[in-house]
Amino acid sequence: MKFAFTIARRFMLGGKGAGPSRLTGWMSIIGLAAGTFALIVSLSVLNGFEERVTSRIVGFEGDLRITAVDEDIDLMSMLNEIKRDQFTVDAMPYRERKGLISTGKQQQRLVTLKAIEVDRFSDFYNIKMDEDEKGNEQSVYIGQVLARRLNVGVGDEVQFMSPVDHSSQVGLPRRYSGKVAGIFRAEVLDVDDRIVFIPMVLGERLFSRKKGIDGIDIRLKESKQAESLKKYYRKKLPGGILVKSWADLHSGLFNAMRMERIGTMAVLSLIVLVACFNLMSTLVLVTYQKIREIGILRTLGTTARKVQGIILFQGLMIGGIGAIVGIGLSSGLIMAQNQFGLFPLPEEVYFIDKLPMVFKLVDLFAVIFISFILILLSSAIASNRALKINPKEAVYLEK
Question: Is the pLDDT of residue 11 over 80?
Answer without folding.
Answer: no
